[in-house]
Amino acid sequence: MSSIDLESYIVDIPDYPEPGVIFKDITPLLASPKGLAASIDEIADHFLEAGITKVIGSEARGFLVGAPVAYRLGAGFVPARKPGKLPRDVFSQQYALEYGTDQLEIHKDALGPDDRVLVVDDLVATGGTTIATAQLAEKAGAEVVAFAFILELAYLNPREIIAEQFDQEVFTLIQVQ
């Protein structure tokens, strides 16, 4: 575990984006050289021996965490983008939001059957984005090895939701109860 108190970098924003919600702002952690380095190092160190060949990060903050983790693991990085952002043939996966649906895409040639994938994002709340990202990896024929996040909103039970479809490890640095 990190010798830095990563949770001290998270700022609570009450009533954002709507009344009654407490938004967990990780941008101060990302802005801190020590906080960012400790977060990336801790995630990467945890998976150094897992044989990860690719890291997938979801748009947009998953890019900020996933790409440096991939670099540290000596793996490639695959961006899971919103529809219409990728120029070649894509796999698409729709997922539910609180109000409606959304969709993510990856290039069809981004992953293959020899790839061992780590799904990375800044935070996990209800697990919808995470599950969709992992399903994209599976559509491409890759093996999902694990999931990693800086922040987990544990009171929303994302581990249980993810476990309904995936039995791989869920690793987080900070859990908010």
Describe it:
By secondary structure, this protein is an alpha/beta fold. It has a single domain, classed as Rossmann fold. The protein is 28% helix and 35% strand. The strands form three sheets. A five-stranded parallel sheet has the order 4-3-7-8-9, with helices on both faces. A two-stranded antiparallel sheet has the order 1-2. A two-stranded antiparallel ribbon has the order 5-6. Helix 2 (33-46) packs across helix 3 (61-73). The longest helix has 14 residues, at 33-46. The protein is globular. The two termini are 19 Å apart. The relative contact order is 0.16. The mean pLDDT is 96.
Number of strands: 9
- Overall 3D shape: globular
Radius of gyration: 16 Å
CATH second-level architecture: 3-Layer(aba) Sandwich
**What is the residue-averaged pLDDT?**
96
Distance between the termini: 19 Å
Helicity level, as a percent range? 25-40%
